[in-house]
Amino acid sequence: MIFITGPLYSGKREYARLLLGCTREELAQRAVWDVQELAAGCGDLAALAQQLARNEVVIATEVGGGVVPVDKNERAAREAAGRLGCLLAQRADAVVRVFCGIPVYLKGAPNT
Fold first, then answer.
1. With 60 as the cut, is the pLDDT of residue 112 above it?
2. How far is CA 111 from the centre of its chain?
3. Structure pTM?
4. Measuring CA to CA, which of 45, 85, 95, 112 is 20 to 30 A from 76?
């Protein structure tokens, strides 16, 4: 599994599409994205990470930067998203951070 992360609107899906050499429609069959949203309220992040890791590519938007939310639930969701990202990075064969469309390999190199 390849784990791709980066800021909102940084080109993560486009990079995944180019990496896999597929169309946008095919990407929907081979990848899952916005997984950080699944972390909020999840009782078992390890099980969620295990389930998500079955995909060829998993894409998450970084949510930990900036001002810490005042709302308790928003802080908990942000913390859960970060923990999920760590669990996915541990399971990944390759971890890529995309910023402004530029990939930086943090772990391994995609072999697709």
1. no
2. 18
3. 0.91
4. 95
Beta-strand runs (E) in the chain: 2-6, 31-32, 57-61, 94-99, 102-107
Encoded amino acid at 99, one letter: F
Q: Based on the structure, what is the number of domains in the chain? A: 1
Unique residue bearing structure tokens 């772990």 = 107
CB 19 within 8 A of CB 2: yes
Residue 92 lies in a domain: yes
Residue 112 lies in a domain: no
Residue 10's nearest CA partner among 62, 52, 46, 87 is 62
- Given this model, what pLDDT does residue 59 score? 98
**Residue 13, domain member (yes or no):** yes
Burial of 68 (0-12, 13-18, 19+ CB in 10 A): exposed
